[in-house]
Amino acid sequence: MNTTSPIRTDVAFRVENASYYYGSNLAVRDVFMDVPESKITSLIGPSGCGKSTVLRCFNRLNDLISGAHVKGKITYRGVDLYDKSVDATELRRRIGMVFQKPNPFPKSIYENIAFGARINGYRGDMDALVERSLRGAALWEEVKDKLKESGLSLSGGQQQRLCIARAIAIEPEVLLMDEPCSALDPISTLRIEELMQELKSNYTIIIVTHNMQQAARVSDMTAFFNAQATEAGGKQGYLVEFAPTQTIFNNPAQQATQDYVSGRFG
Ligand code: ADP
């Protein structure tokens, strides 16, 4: 297999020369990426290089941060994400987010799924939706006899799968995951990684991870970001290389990528 050839597939997100700002502070620059549909793309790089910033812009979560804005172009399925006609709330329904720390609602396991679905206007059979979502997140067998118990009574790994179930209950097209395993033990981490492999046939997944082995294990494409010191004493992130994961880990084009994946810095 020629590992240097790009994976041929449909493009979900196209990022063209994007720069990400907080006020006048340029946090991340020079981002070009074609994120494929129904694949897992990971964003890696040292802390502060802008991975979460880039991730949050895929569903315009950065809009909620005062002063945050993007220059350049980001399209989703050909539509400019920042076009005036795009409804950010509807966009976030289609492009769901799973956060670093599992954050179930302080409600029953059942309501954790049903609540969001109801708010999003779901009118179908709620019991069936709850079961389908919990099965989809590989949690059903563990919780089917205690659906009325609090979501907060579950273990960390189960809570994270509950959050994934909650996200998929509203039938998104994309799942953004910001270090979804960093608060979990190794067994729960493996469970989530297996789940991601199962989910990718139905969803485009983009994951930020600090864990290079995780990126190598789970993802099809990898974007490596780095940061440089600014004159003002801050940091500025930039995309170094975006390529099939095999290439990034075995035969990267840039020396900085090679140094990072072989553990020489970061
Ligand atoms: P990473 O996820 O790679 O650790 P981040 O995206 O969190 O990087 O941060 C990239 C840069 O953007 C950092 O310099 C950080 O200080 C800045 N930044 C992140 N979030 C905010 C924010 N809410 N307000 C201002 N600056 C921020």
Concise account of the structure shown:
The protein has 266 residues and is an alpha/beta fold.
What descriptors fit this protein?
266 residues, alpha/beta, Rossmann fold, 10 strands, binds adenosine-5'-diphosphate
Question: Can you tell me about this structure?
Answer:
The chain has helices at 51-57, 88-94, 109-119, 126-136, 140-143, 156-169, 186-199, 212-218, 245-250, 255-261, and strands spanning 11-22, 25-36, 40-44, 68-76, 79-80, 95-98, 174-178, 204-208, 221-229, 235-244. The chain is α/β, with parallel strands linked by helices and 266 residues long. It has a single domain (11-261), classed as P-loop containing nucleotide triphosphate hydrolases (Rossmann fold), CATH 3.40.50. It has a ten-stranded mixed β-sheet with strand order 5-4-1-2-10-9-3-8-7-6, sandwiched between helices. 42% of the residues are buried. Bound molecules: adenosine-5'-diphosphate. Adenosine-5'-diphosphate (ADP) binds at residues 22, 27, 45, 47-53, 65, 234-235, 237.
Rounded Rg: 19 Å
Strand order of the largest sheet: 5-4-1-2-10-9-3-8-7-6
Structural class: alpha/beta
First-last Cα distance: 30 Å
- CATH fold name, please? Rossmann fold
Sheet of most strands: 10 strands, mixed
Number of DSSP-assigned strands: 10
Stretches with pLDDT under 50, minimum 5 residues: 1-5
CATH class: Alpha Beta
- Described by the principal axes of the CA atoms, the overall outline is globular
What is the assigned CATH homologous superfamily? P-loop containing nucleotide triphosphate hydrolases
List the helices and strands in order. EEEHEEHEHHHHEHEHEEHH
